[in-house]
Each structure stands twice: as structure tokens, then as C-alpha cells.
Automatic annotation (TrEMBL):
Name used for this protein in its record: Glycosyltransferase family 1 protein
SUPFAM superfamilies: UDP-Glycosyltransferase/glycogen phosphorylase
Pfam families: WsaF_C
InterPro entries in alphabetical order: WsaF_C
Domain named WsaF C-terminal: residues: 206-329
Length: 371
């Protein structure tokens, strides 16, 4: 499992240890924050967003330390990790020091706040002997990543550790508060309009599907069924699949397999498309807003986990059936005002900035840290 056996054995959230009883309060001024995370990769979207918010914390004057936690024998080479991060435009330049997390040594004695950033990292955060205040940066409901069973239960337990959750979007905040009793705040989803913007004001005759068969919550099979019906009705439309190399999967209609793409490639592809199909069975993806910024109508399965994140009127919420998905894609392609609508949907996001979301995050963190 992702969590170390010794950590899973040691945590008993029904009987909290004394060092968690009186967490640190910092009445004013900067805070030293430790962030525990699994090691990032160049293409890890969750880490891209996590590092964005560490950057916001640093810009607000806080000192950050990053610790890598993994239940593998691999030891992260810190210079190589920094070189990878520095070479990727998806990662901001941070001042944070980086190190492997040592279970026995724990975090640096100067640390006043500790963030868990995934379910497995919540275990060492709980067990660390520091009296630092505990937080949980939650980007998705991770128990749903697993079938019902041990990992699903252990992931669910992490929301019962008494941490203060700061979540991506309102659906997670409400769910964790209502179902697990966690104190929560949230920041809104946003989009970088310097990366995603409209360049094509002409009619578009392509569609996009965020296709990740290795990530069940992204509904690959349902999307393929909907696109199969759409392709039968509109064989003239180019269907682009991106997010994973799907050459080993059977796709029963003509398509373009774009595999994994660099962020710098996305805007040009999006600007060829009229609609983008994004299915999310847990927390909403960032893609719907990114698609909209490029003038693409996002077709998204209608569910609270999506609507409670964004109620933008240009998101095409649709019943999660193949026929309904195909119907909506055809409707989007056939709109006579599609080009004009592309510009309007992009303009609707002009104030939906990551800087605003970063301000929400910092304000929630500082309010909780002040005690």
C-alpha cells in the first residue's frame, strides 16, 4: 500500500496522542510550514496544483519545508528532483528546502504547521512528535480511488484524524465536514488565462476527450461509449483523445491518439475543438475551466461533485448516459452562434484567477493558525 505498515499500525485515531492536544498557535507574523507529499513527477497534475499553493504560502511570507514520503525503497535524489522541477514550466520556483521524511527524526523543530497532502501522508503527519498544528490539503476524495476494502477504509480514516482541511472546491469541503466532522475551508477552482485563451474565432469541427483508462474516476469507458454514438451520428468530426497513450485499448471509432501532452501544447489543440468531454466521478477536474478559457464547451457528467465546484453557466452538464453525452456533443457542434459563444465563455473566467484562490487559501490557513 501507499502507507507504510508501521504507520498504519501505529495510528489509533480513536485515542489521540497528547502531542496533538494543544497544537501550536502563531498569533501574528510568518509561519514555518512542513508539507509531506509523495514524490512528484513531471506530469503529475496534483503536484502541479499543490506546488502552486506552496508558492502562494511563500509569497504571503511563510517559510516552507517539503518532505517526501513513500512506502518504496526508492530514496529521492534531491538535486535531481530540483532539476526536474526547475525544468518543468508547470512548477513554480520555490524557496522551500526539500528532504526525505525520516520517521524517527520527524520534521524540523522550527515547524509550526504540518500539511498532509494525500491520504498516506496523513499517517506520518498524525504520528510526528511535533506540536505543530495539523492541516490537510485535500484535492480529491481519495477513498474513491479504491474498491471497497482495506485501502478505502484506511484512506477514509485519514479524514478522522482531527486535522483542519483546506479543500479544492466546495464539494469536498462540505463532504468532509458533513460525513467526517472535519473542520474545513475551501478555495475555488481557477484557470491561468495566460496559458489558456481563445485564438480561433472561426467555426470548429473537432472534439476533445480527457481519456485516462488508468484512472477509473475519469470514466474512460463511459466516455468511449458516448463518443462511439457521437461518431456514428457525426463521422465528419475529428475526435481527439488525450491524457494517456490509449494505443493498447480498443477504441471503436476513428480518432486521434494524442497521448500525454505538455501544458504548452494544450491551448493550440483546444482551439481546434468545439466541445470537450470531461468525466469526473469524484472531485471535478481542472480541465472544464481550462477548456472554457480556450473557447471549448466542456461537457461534464451532472453530479454534485461537479456542480458544487463550479456553477458556470457555460458548463454543459449532462446525464451520464452514452446517448445523452452524444446528444449534447451534437448540440454543441451545431450551434449557429458557436464562435461568438466561445469568446463569451472565455470572458466569463476573466476574474476566476489562481491569485484569488491563493488568497482564499492563505486567509483560511492564517485564520486557523492564529487559534
Amino acid at each position: 500500500m501507499a502507507v507504510k505498515t508501521r504507520d498504519a499500525l501505529a495510528v489509533d485515531w480513536t485515542n489521540p496522542p497528547q502531542h496533538l492536544a494543544r497544537p501550536t498557535v502563531v498569533g501574528s507574523g510568518p509561519v514555518t510550514i512542513a508539507w509531506l507529499m509523495p514524490p512528484p513527477s513531471a506530469m503529475s497534475g496534483g503536484h502541479h496544483n499543490l506546488f502552486r499553493f506552496i508558492d502562494f504560502a511563500e509569497k504571503a511570507g511563510h517559510r516552507c519545508l517539503i518532505y517526501f514520503y513513500t512506502n518504496t525503497p526508492i530514496v529521492v535524489n534531491i538535486p535531481d528532483m530540483k532539476a526536474m522541477l526547475d525544468g518543468s514550466p508547470a512548477y513554480p520556483n520555490l524557496s522551500a528546502e526539500m528532504a526525505m521524511y525520516d520517521d524517527d527524526a520527524g520534521v524540523d523543530p522550527s515547524v509550526q504547521a504540518i500539511f498532509a497532502t494525500s491520504w498516506e501522508t496523513a499517517y506520518p503527519v498524525y504520528l510526528d512528535k511535533s506540536t505543530a498544528r495539523r492541516f490537510y490539503f485535500v484535492q480529491d476524495f481519495e477513498p474513491s480511488f479504491f474498491p471497497a476494502g482495506s485501502e478505502e477504509i484506511l484512506a477514509s480514516n485519514s479524514y478522522r484524524f482531527g486535522f483542519h482541511g483546506i479543500t479544492a472546491g466546495g464539494w469536498l469541503s462540505r463532504k468532509l465536514h458533513d460525513e467526517f466532522g472535519m473542520p474545513t475551508d475551501h478555495f475555488d477552482f481557477a484557470v491561468d488565462k495566460e496559458t489558456y485563451f481563445v485564438t480561433n474565432n472561426e467555426p470548429r469541427n473537432e472534439v476533445f476527450f480527457y481519456a485516462r483508462p488508468v484512472t477509473p474516476r475519469r470514466g474512460f469507458e463511459l466516455g468511449i461509449l458516448g463518443l462511439q454514438e457521437f461518431a456514428r451520428r457525426r463521422p465528419d468530426v475529428t475526435i481527439n483523445l488525450a491524457g494517456w497513450d490509449i494505443s493498447r485499448w480498443t477504441v471503436p471509432f476513428p480518432h486521434v491518439n494524442l497521448s500525454g501532452l505538455a501544458i504548452s501544447q494544450l491551448n493550440d489543440i483546444y482551439n481546434r475543438c468545439a466541445a470537450g468531454l470531461v468525466i469526473s466521478a469524484t472531485n471535478m477536474s481542472l480541465l472544464p475551466l481550462e477548456l472554457m478559457a480556450s473557447g471549448v464547451a466542456p461537457v461534464v457528467n451532472d453530479a454534485p461533485n461537479n456542480r458544487l465546484v463550479s456553477d458556470n453557466p457555460y458548463i454543459e452538464y449532462v446525464a451520464p448516459t452514452p446517448s445523452a453525452i452524444a446528444d449534447r456533443l451534437v448540440e454543441v457542434l451545431d450551434r449557429p452562434d458557436a464562435a461568438e459563444r466561445s469568446v463569451k465563455m472565455s470572458d466569463s473566467l476573466n476574474d476566476v484567477t489562481w491569485e484569488r484562490s491563493g488568497g482564499q487559501f492563505v486567509e483560511a490557513f492564517e485564520r486557523a493558525m492564529r487559534g
